[in-house]
Amino acid sequence: MLSELSNILKITELRQKIIFTLVMFLVFRLGTHIPVPGVNAAVIEQLFTSGNLFGLLDMFSGGALSKFSIFAMSITPYINASIIMQLLTVVVPKFEQWAKEGEEGRKKITQITRYGTVGLGFIQAIGMAFGLKVAIINPNFGNVLIIALTLTAGTTFLMWLGEQITEKGIGNGISLIIFAGIVSRLPDGIFTIYEYVKAGTINIFNVFLFLIIAVAMIVFVIMIQQGQRRIPVQYAKRVVGRKMYGGNSTHIPLKVNQAGVIPIIFASSVLMFPVTIAQFVDIAWVKTVAGWFAWGTPLQTALYALLIIFFTYFYTAVTMNISDMADNMKKHGGFIPGIRPGKPTADYLDRVMTRITLAGSIFLAIIAILPNFVGAVTNLQGVYFGGTALLIVVGVALDTMKQVEALVLMRHYQGFMK
Predict the structure, then answer these.
(1) Does domain 203-379 have CATH number 1.10.3370.10?
(2) What value does the mean pLDDT of the chain take?
(3) CA separation, residue 373 to residues 56, 185, 197, 382, 406 (Å)
(4) pTM
(5) CB of 51 within 8 A of CB of 21?
(6) DSSP character at residue 169
(7) Is there a contact between 38 and 137 (Cβ–Cβ < 8 Å)?
């Protein structure tokens, strides 16, 4: 394996890409330690406990939110803008037309996504500044505006950083920034476990059990993420002039987890809304309702699983156009053996996709709620090991490894993935 990995360093272009990506990671990590002016960081840190919305967002930002640094909002506004644009592409004819125009259309959509990121980032920054007024040293309008502009500028810089990694580095830059933020929290988790063992709160058996469950979850996630149902497609032979085209066989890969991590993010946002409101509103009945949705309660866990299943079907239905897939197949002379082209093919693909999505949605629900039971079984509290983070880390790692593998094989070297 070491000799195969050494092939990477033999390729000048790939070596430069990896070094550039690592340098951008360093810039990102340095930025998480630059504080926003006019904020009492000690007050902010009191809000961040494991299991609440702030703890989850802090994990994505690599600890920048708990420090209230210039990267406190991380790349979240960009993700929200991208999801909104992806949904609008289905319902807005102009965006749908751009999506079909290839590279030029993609550039237009990307440009609007950038503007949307700045707009959403500024709105989110204003909300954070007003919501965390208690931590602002001098909470007047001018200081709130400066804080909001600083946070927006930090998110915009991260968006640019991610695009630079995509263009000049290796892998998807935005995903890698989130990946780096999550992985950077690993040393804190290890230190917390060490402190628990040292204090006698847990024993070595609890740590060993936690490691076994963690490895099993990672293997499970990799299996499902890579799982797909391959629908065989046969193309009829066509004679054009003196040449014969078609006649080959291929397949349509339908992924088990077509929606990725989006359903978990949607479900988390919906359930965390009342909890977040209750932290800034001093009304008895609001706090009572928020208590029902507290992280780990039976009601919250059940609703969390059901919402994940619902959003998995919703997002898959929005992003996958089965009818267009069947029509394109028919136009190019393709058919599924035993299935008539056109509507019967669309109905068959829809039926298969519905069954696959059920398995994918149940998988996402299990991965999302399993950390609640892991904490109860191992007595490890305060160590966040969530399904969202695990899916992102595994997915980004697999995609990046595939890109590195492709670049290695392009230079006629033996790959390193088995």
Answers:
(1) yes
(2) 79
(3) 17, 21, 20, 14, 39
(4) 0.78
(5) no
(6) S
(7) yes
